[in-house]
Specification:
The chain has 567 residues and is of the alpha/beta class. The longest helix is centred in the first third of the chain and has 17 residues. The radius of gyration is 26 Å and the shape is globular.
């Protein structure tokens, strides 16, 4: 029956027969994809806990401790610092303030991650003469030069670009985009010896100083890391950040170079920092598979990518990259202009809200805000809106189809860790578990469980707060720090389980009598995830319900006597 207008809250405890709380209950029991869509209901309430991570770029307006706490309350999980702007003093203050915010107000105790976004190997114009904007008129001819002596004299007749090999990589008829594609220059003639290109202005526009340039479908020979990038990565290590967003990654060797730079600064911290490769051009798209194998995660950086490739192709690139990351079990971030209008408006456009939702439906682990929180007038509202849209989109995912598709896609046989991770998720779904609690040292167990997209949250308990914080990159994870040191002898698995359950109970993630799944590993590496068991919160166990490979019913029917050696 059609509910009354405004009746948006379902009766307490109302769930489908299979227990899809907060998951578009009626739709989840559909037999087909069309049946699922037909049953989607705007009056259905989503889950209280969001699974998708929210990354916020921090600017001068939001760097204060109070502002960071405000953003955390609204839903921020990862602090992003854009190293294309700002000094080390400024970024150091952001890091210190973020940690001070967590120390002063832990909220529910969840960790906060800190990310450094590198400037990357960019091509930029020089300074305009006098510092004012220069109007370029459509159809006009101008000279593009790579002569550094002209870097402060850009005008309507001549523009300096800081890429010495520009005349060698460009060809007549090629296009150079300037300032995020607002100005297009078509190459009419090239003088490689003089280091100049004669260009025609394709569309009128105001040229400012130090504007970025893009060369669509052109492979450039810029180094993976500039001198500034190397200094920035060393700064990241010194400040013990959790992850690096590496700009303009074009091939696997670029990822290896970033890792080598981090390790050179500190072998331990440099090895631990997660590298997220930003795919922003044709070369990165063509080499995506080798980049994915080398990197810890991927960012679909739609800003520069949307200039390098046709706008109508960006959604294809987004879906392809997210899907490959999902199959590989590596996190994928969707970024750029997600709620752009909220930089100056208190509400997003309907297209922007749908863009965020579709990124979640595509399978993105995280979504990112840039100018909305760095310089916008409504940073809290932007985070709160993204939080709401993500929750609604997560509820609309057809769980049965996603599970089936992932199972069919995975190559057989699965590794031991993968097999246990899938079994954990299957058990959680079959028993309508409220929570999966995993004990992790390296983050591997949480990453693998997240890959199989459980319907309940994945609470992680980790001794290393930096490894725990980086788990915000994976969908569905709730990372918490375990403060006790590792015992000199034996293990403390039961203590960590009790710690996690007490935290979950205190935060309302579960209540007495709720079934939860507890998963852990024997050791790091091939045995990162080996065991799990079902627990009812607050109910004393008479015997540990460790999962057996052989069901008891089968043991009674069959003889499993150990065969003689050689038989």
């Amino acid at each position: 029956a059609t509910p009354q207008r405004g009746a948006l809250v379902a009766p307490e405890g109302l769930e489908s027969p299979t227990g899809h709380a907060g998951r578009q209950n009626a739709a989840q029991d559909a037999a087909t994809t069309y049946g699922h869509r037909c049953k989607l209901d705007i009056y259905s309430q989503p889950s209280r806990l969001r699974a998708t991570g929210i990354i916020c770029t921090i600017g001068p307006k939001t760097k204060a401790v109070e502002q960071l706490t405000m953003l955390r309350r609204a839903g921020m999980n990862i602090v992003r610092m854009n190293f294309s702007h700002g000094s080390y003093e400024y970024h150091g203050e952001v890091i210190d303030n973020a940690r001070a915010s967590v120390a002063a107000e832990p909220l529910d105790g969840r960790l906060l991650a800190i990310a450094l976004d590198t400037k990357g190997p960019e091509i930029r114009t020089g300074m305009t003469a006098g510092g004012d904007g220069v109007m370029l008129e459509k159809g006009a001819r101008l000279l593009v030069t790579t002569d550094a002596s002209q870097k402060d004299a850009c005008s309507a007749s001549q523009i300096y670009m800081d890429y010495a090999n520009l005349p060698k990589v460009m060809s007549v008829g090629g296009v150079i985009f300037v300032d995020d594609g607002l100005i297009a220059l078509k190459v009419a003639a090239i003088d490689a010896a003089a280091g100049t290109l004669e260009c025609e202005v394709v569309n009128s526009g105001l040229l400012g100083s130090k504007k970025g340039c893009n060369l669509p479908e052109v492979d450039v020979d810029l180094p993976a890391l500039s001198a500034k990038d190397r200094d920035d990565l060393a700064f990241a290590v010194s400040k013990d950040v959790d992850m690096v967003f590496a700009s303009f990654i074009r091939k696997a060797s670029d990822v290896h170079e970033v890792r080598a730079c981090l390790v050179a600064a500190d072998p331990v911290v440099g090895k631990r920092i997660r590298i997220i490769s930003k795919i922003e051009n044709h070369e990165g798209m063509r080499n995506f598979d080798e980049i994915l194998a080398a990197t810890d995660g991927v960012m679909v950086a739609r800003g520069d990518l949307g200039i390098e490739i046709p706008s109508e192709k960006v959604f294809l690139a987004q879906k392809m990259m997210i899907a490959k990351c999902n199959v590989a079990g590596k996190p994928c971030i969707c970024a750029t202009q997600m709620l752009e209008s909220m930089t100056s408006n208190p509400r997003p456009t309907r297209a922007e809200a749908s863009d965020v939702a579709n990124a979640v439906l595509d399978g993105a682990d995280c979504v990112m805000l840039s100018g909305e929180t760095a310089k916008g007038a409504y940073p809290r509202e932007a985070v709160a809106m993204m939080d709401l849209v993500c929750k609604e989109a997560e509820a609309a995912i057809f769980i049965r189809r996603e599970t089936e598709q992932m199972t069919l896609t995975m190559p057989k046989p699965l590794s031991m860790n993968e097999s246990v991770a899938k079994a954990v998720v299957d058990a959680a779904h079959s028993h309508a578990a409220r929570l999966i609690l995993t004990l992790t040292t390296t983050g591997t167990s949480a990453r693998l469980i997240s890959k199989y997209r459980p319907t309940c949250p994945i609470m992680t308990v980790c001794r290393d707060s930096h490894i725990g914080s980086s788990l915000h990159l994976h969908r569905g994870t709730l990372p918490f720090h375990y403060p006790e040191p590792k015992p000199e002898s034996g293990d403390d698995i039961e203590k960590r389980i009790d710690f996690g359950i007490e935290l979950a109970f205190a935060n309302g993630f579960c209540k007495k009598g709720d079934p939860i799944v507890v998963a852990w590993g024997w050791r790091s590496g091939v045995a990162s995830l080996t065991s799990f068991r079902m627990i009812k919160v607050g109910v004393r166990e008479t015997a540990k319900s460790l999962v057996s490979v052989v069901p008891k019913e089968l043991e009674e029917l069959c003889s499993f006597a150990t065969p003689q050696r050689g038989a």
